[in-house]
Please model this.
Amino acid sequence: MDVKIRSAVVYSVLRLLAFLVPLGIMMLFPIFREMYWLALIFAALIGVSLSIIFLRRPLDDVSQSLAERRAQRTDVRTEKSAAEKDAEIEDAANDAARGASAEHPDA
Model:
């Protein structure tokens, strides 16, 4: 579980850096200081592009860990407890006993 959390943190930090580094570089130019919203848009586009190109493996790790976690939750939810299994066995035995007594009313 520790490795999965680590990969999520690494991916998040790298995504932030892919946005903040271009933003910081663009803010050095006077035109982007005046129109900061333009710098934000360009930094977001650059960050998305960099993450698509270079962060494919960390994204795959994070996606895989999320899929495994979801599968574990689904398995836990669909698994029946021992009491539920016992109740089903008892119901089946009762139904079988009722069926046998209905076939042989003399007994």
